Model the fold of this input.
Amino acid sequence: MALTKDHNIINFDEFETSTNIDRRQLAGLYFFMVLDRLVYLAEWLSHDRLERPGKYSEVDDASILLLANLRSKSGKDPLFPSREEREQIYVPIFGTAGSASADFPRLRDSLMQAAADFANRQTGTGFDALIEGFRTALRPFKRYLDNVNGASVRFSRDPVLAELTELTAYSILRSDSMASAWGYGTEPTADWPYADEGQPSEMVDEMFEYFSARMNPDETETSTPAQGFSELQELALRGAEAIATCIDVSAAAPPDDIEDVIDKVFAWHCAMRPWMQPA
Done:
């Protein structure tokens, strides 16, 4: 039996369906957390346009207004949480990069291991046992998601982070005149960052390298030091799809449905591999 909804995020409409209805808001929070780099960039741009006005002389008025609003409201308006305030949203739910013993990372890792065991099985061997092993890992993961879900998560997902991301930071970075200011002839489309587009990833990486060196010379992004934006985007998309699917599907569902969940979790697991490599 096929799943009622196959979460495959390729544009904003699919993102909204998969992460903003039917108790799937946690999937949206995960996506925003992983791609918080885009909010960092918009915040840095909001200062840079004052420090280097010549660079942004041809940026459209709508983007300038968004930058001005972000700079003036960050940390002062409930819909524009600062970096520290965003961490207060994310960390209690998802833990931190190094907190392997926290509930979410621990349960996620068990789920991913069960999915990997199933995906790497010998053909025709151990099917039933591996399905049951995945069910065993899925139950506590779902319980955890159910326990932390609710009014606070829904409010953080929308309106708070929806305003800060899609309506502000992402809109700034999608501007064709902003892309031109940074020397790029092709701007992100309206589907970005929900769709993988090569040139926007290059632009984001260039911006991030520049601002990291210029504005935070003594600070490094210790959680993802070697990965570019395309790897972050893959992790955000596959993770959101997997979390939404885990929320949708009962651990007691038929094996065919469990296999569909396994496929999503294994794709998430594969997207995490760049962060699991030894230093």
Remarks:
- The radius of gyration is 20 Å.
